[in-house]
């Protein structure tokens, strides 16, 4: 018990240190938006007798994906044989607010399933280290789209259960939309890791051409993976027009996530914060009169900042 308490204290100090690195100004902007966005999504899901069951699966999948990418798993395995029990308690604490939200709507089953599934994320094996090319399985995605190649090897399995859930509840428009939202979160994790500087330099393109190529690849594969969800949505009450509108919004958010990655390259913390802020604003503020102006400012700012940052990284020739 003392070892568990020491571990939780260590994790608390680490989170506080990371928040300090972000800065209080960014936190003052980010936290309210994220709380509103997450709260709004949970309220919408908890109030639906069908979509509420996607919450425990989505939370467990996100925790499992984050768990696989933890850099301290090998250290914990060597220094503490019982580390998986510590991780299970930690993940249970992260999921507790979600379960309480479900309980507020009297979704007893979904709340219990959340508390049951999330500790199981600690049993998921860590992501394998780089293997030789001969031992790697061939990827459906181009090697140039390295975010998709590595991301789908780690979390691509989430796509099929999400699609199965959307097909199962195809008569409810919220089901495929919620599945697309979860899939966007998976892609958010894929684009939250900055590539090494050598990969940018070897691209040998100007900043504008490089950014355009990243957007074309990301949005192209994004549309390819989102198309089945949009097809399910089109066959339901939303119709073709509703599916097209959702697809445009979804691709727009993915494009902003890609832009945010290079706007603050190579600072992983800052780019992840910006990506979360963009997605949070998009979820929290639709219908607000300032939303169009805020979205336009975000798009213009990210395009300018990403090109400016890439020019600084690629050198004087990266115009």
Mean pLDDT over the full residue set: 81
Largest sheet: none
The structure class reads mainly alpha
Q: What is the number of E strands? A: 0
How would you spell out the order of helices and strands? HHHHHHHHHHHHHH
Number of helices: 14
Radius of gyration: 20 Å
Strand fraction equals under 5%
Shape: globular
The multimeric state of the shown protein is single chain
Low-confidence stretches: 129-136
Relative helix content: over 70%
How far apart, in Å, are the first and last alpha carbons? 57 Å
Could you characterize what this model shows?
- This protein has 319 residues and is mainly alpha-helical.
- 74% of the residues lie in helices and 0% in strands.
- It contains 14 helices and no strands.
- It has helices at 2-22, 24-46, 54-68, 73-79, 83-104, 108-117, 146-155, 159-168, 174-190, 197-203, 207-234, 239-263, 268-284, 291-314.
- Helix 8 (159-168) packs parallel to helix 11.
- The protein is globular and about 55 Å long.
- The termini are far apart.
- The relative contact order is 0.10.
- The model is unreliable at 129-136 (pLDDT under 50).
